[in-house]
Amino acid sequence: MKKITTLILSLILALALSVTAFAATVGTGDQEIDVEGKYQDNTTVSTVYSVDVTWGAMQFTYSENGSMTWNPADHTYSDNTTAGWTANGNTVTVTNHSNAEVTASFRFDALSSFSAVTGSFDIAADTLEAGVEGGYDTADEVTATLSLEGTLDENVTDFTKIGTITVNII
User: Fold this and answer.
1) Which residue among 24, 53, 105, 121 sits deepest, i.e. has the most Cβ atoms within 10 Å of its Cβ?
2) CA–CA gap between residue 40 and residue 164 (Å, rounded)
3) How much is the CA Rg of the chain, to the nearest whole Å?
């Protein structure tokens, strides 16, 4: 019985080895396997707001020019004058150095004691593009010009605060 068991084990072992040897020789040769890849950007970029606002002197002079002619017959003046505002430095410039677009708006409000004066900007609002990397000198900007209308009392002979400008950045 020992001989039969040894023979059976030898046959099983021989079959197992031959199957292993057979499997190894069947797969010979080159085989290509695709390798795939992809890029994934997990970098976060925070929004940074940086806006330069510059303005001129914002000094305005209201003046009347011309002549007043006295009429002795009815004791009145013939008014041959014109009046208006001249400005020294009446611009506001906003430059966007942010990495996001911004909108700049401009508003003038007269003080209540100077309610006869009104003002407006030639540009009420403008959207400025985000800055471009490496393009500091080409940053988007807007320049708005303030014009005044109305009258100023003749007793105001020194530069006096008559209102405020609001520049709103959103």
Assistant:
1) 121
2) 50
3) 43
